[in-house]
Amino acid sequence: MVTATGYAAKHSFSRLKPIEIERDPPKANEVQIDVLYCGVCHSDIHQCENDWGNTVYPCMPGHEVVGRVSAKGASVTKHEVGDLVGVGCMIDSCHECGPCKAGDEQYCEGPNSWLATYNGPMKPAAQAKTGTNMYGRDNTFGGYSDVLVVREDFVLKIPASIPVEAAAPILCAGVTTYSPMKHWGVKAGDKVGVVGFGGLGDMAVKIAVAMGADVTVFTTTKEKVAEAEKLGAKGVVEGDKEASEALEGQFDFILSTIPEKHKIDPFIPLLKHDAAYVSVGALAPMPGWNHMPVIMGRKSIAGSLIGSIAETQEVLDFCAEHGIAPDVQVIPIQEINEAYKKVKSGDVRFRYVIDSASLAQEKAEAA
Ligand code: NDP
Ligand code: ZN
Fold first, then answer.
1. 97-108 burial string, b = 16+ CB within 10 Å, else e?
2. DSSP label at 10?
3. Percent of all residues in the chain with a pLDDT value above 70, rounded to a whole number
4. Hey, how many other C-beta atoms are within 10 angstroms of the C-beta on 34?
């Protein structure tokens, strides 16, 4: 067995604390990864606090992982010991269903769904069984730890030009915003709206600007208007009626990253005919909207889940090619509970990333 140390929540209202876990050593098609950095996604907080009703405890989050391959199984061909690699939200899927065959593993329809990097299997609460996953373990444990073991096909290559710590959030925040932009065909010259300027929003703006889009950020935080402008976007404070009215009928695509249920009525008039409002943030029941303008303009209200493994590699390469990376604040893992509070209060620019060396240091001090 591979003994790993990490931080986990023991129940929905507990602070994250160090625990030791055992991981199976790499099978023939798996690699072992020494974790260097792990991003702190708002989903980690939702999951630890059981906002989606499907959390299995102890919950050890972390699905924006960058590390180095430290061992590999006999049949591994894609990665070598020493390679700088990444792991996102998935570590396996059934490989046999329609979505898997189409390269959309994140929509896997197999009996266990796709295997989430932590808290796997990722089934909605109603379908969740007892929390056992396809490995027969109680749960999967994520990247808030020093070691991961992952099937080679679900391990990404990190381009050398991206700063290592900044590469981590691309594995979730990057692909979750890139995938819908690609799916809905965002192209140069399009007018793109980004609602909610946090960890995902930061990546959405940078990717859309790099695609040549004309980007407007809708934010509840006045100071972020100037921050959007620094990235080549415009900023509108949500609820600014005058500014919103001036933008009616102009947007080809709006991506919302608001982490909670919210009213979408204010955004529908901003869409052009045939355009889509895609919410990736609110994994929750949403209030209804006035469907009249949706019908009149053949508009779409839609959702999107992370992105495929191929898209994750694509967005990493896209970021390298365009010289973009998330804005990150690196923290030791001992500050994770404080970081969660700051993410919830919107007090982070724009993504906390855990430096896993802090785990090794803690372990050494305890020894
Ligand atoms: P952050 O907290 O970093 O950013 C969210 C931003 O939304 C905030 O910075 C704030 O921006 C705005 N916001 C927060 N609360 C509200 C509110 N009540 N009303 C309006 N705006 C609000 O979160 P992340 O970017 O990490 O994640 C965003 C959401 O996306 C989370 O719910 C997460 O679980 C989900 N997610 C979904 C994925 C998917 O596959 N669909 C994958 C990854 C994450 P501002 O200050 O600009 O208003
Ligand atoms: Zn995430």
1. bebbeeebbbbb
2. S
3. 95
4. 14
Average of pLDDT values for 21-47? 95
Q: Which helix (H) or strand (E) holds 100?
A: helix 98-101
- Extract the tokens encoding 63: 């699905």
Pocket test for ligand 1, best of 38, 47, 200, 286 (most atoms within 8 A of CB): 200
Query: pLDDT higher for 168 or 1?
Result: 168
Q: What is the dihedral of CA 291, 297, 302, 304, to 10 degrees?
A: -170
- Condensed to tens digits (0 to 9), the pLDDT of residues 102-111 reads 999 999 998 7
The pLDDT of residue 127? 42
pLDDT in tens, 118-131: 987 544 443 444 44
From ligand 1's centre to the CA of 198, what distance in Å?
6
The rounded distance, in Å, linking the Cα atoms of 336 and 330 is 11
Ligand 2 centroid to Cα of residue 174, in Å, is 9
What is the value of pTM for the model shown? 0.95
Q: How far apart are CA 313 and CA 315, in angstroms?
A: 6
Name every residue whose Cβ is closer than 8 Å to that of residue 349 and which is 6 or more positions away in sequence.
Answer: 202, 227, 327, 329
In ligand 1, the atom with minimum distance to the C-alpha of 46 is 34
Structural domains present in the chain: 2-172+307-366 (3.90.180.10), 175-303 (3.40.50.720)
Distance, in Å, from the CA atom of 46 to the CA atom of 118, rounded to the nearest integer, reads 13
The pocket of ion ligand 2, defined by CB under 5 A, consists of 41, 43, 172
Which of 280, 315, 342, 349 has most ligand 1 atoms within 8 Å of CB, for mutation?
Answer: 280
Letter for the amino acid at 117? T
Rounded CA separation 323/332 (Å) = 26
Query: Which ligand places an atom closest to the C-alpha of 175?
Result: 1
Both tokens assigned to 306: 């992370």
Dist CA 61 CA 117 (whole Å): 8
E strands in the chain:
2-8, 17-23, 30-39, 65-72, 84-87, 90-92, 115-116, 147-151, 156-157, 191-195, 214-219, 234-237, 251-256, 271-279, 300-303, 328-332, 351-355
Residue whose CA is at the smallest distance from ligand 1 atom 26: 42
